[in-house]
Specification:
- This protein is mainly α.
- The chain has five helices and three strands, in the order H-E-H-E-E-H-H-H.
- A hairpin with a 6-residue loop joins strand 2 and strand 3.
- Helix 1 packs across helix 3.
Length: 180
């Protein structure tokens, strides 16, 4: 019998209040038990169908019961997820069944798809945009020669924007004046 099946069987047995076959006795499983083990209570379960017996310490039984609670919590989580999946399936089916179909085809706009995606907890569709822009700025820099200014500014100026790819097509320095 596998550990999980054994655990579930024991848990079911103990939670249903069936005490047939349970005997409290002193631990005798080890060939050389420690003093602590000699004084530890055990529970023996006898199979009604095969006659086999399994002996557990109280600690083992408590661990099994604790694990059964963990298994129960996991089952609850799985059940909740399955319910959510069924709900999502129904929402998607309803979404497409409400469309106007002609020859097995329909047209759906992006806004409607985004409403569906939002309702099922999925990321909405995005649109990529492009455009041009102009940035105007000023600078102050100390250099030995005026000829160095353009290369220093051009080589060391970066344009960045969160989530956007920016390509600088041209970089012009329009006016250079000496500060007084």
């Amino acid at each position: 019998m596998g550990k999980v099946a054994e655990l579930m069987s024991l848990s079911s047995f103990l939670h249903k209040g069936h005490l047939t076959g349970l005997l409290r006795q002193w631990r005798t499983r080890s060939t050389q038990p420690t003093n602590r083990e000699r004084n530890m209570n055990t529970i023996t379960i006898e199979s009604a169908t095969t006659g086999d017996t399994i002996t557990y310490t109280e600690t083992e039984v408590r661990n099994f019961i604790s694990r059964a609670g963990e298994v129960s919590a996991l089952n609850d989580s799985i059940t909740a997820q399955l319910t959510q999946i069924r709900s999502i399936r129904n929402e998607v089916r309803d979404f497409f069944s409400e469309g106007e179909w002609q020859d097995g085809e329909t047209t759906i706009n992006k806004g409607d798809v985004n409403v569906l995606l939002d309702s099922i907890g999925a990321a909405k569709l995005t649109t990529k945009y492009s455009g041009t822009f102009t940035i105007t700025g000023t600078f102050n820099i100390e250099v030995e020669e005026e000829d160095e200014i353009e290369s220093i500014i051009t080589d060391n100026t970066e344009v960045s924007c969160w989530g956007a790819d920016i390509d600088v097509d041209s970089f012009n320095i329009d006016d250079v004046q000496e500060d007084e």
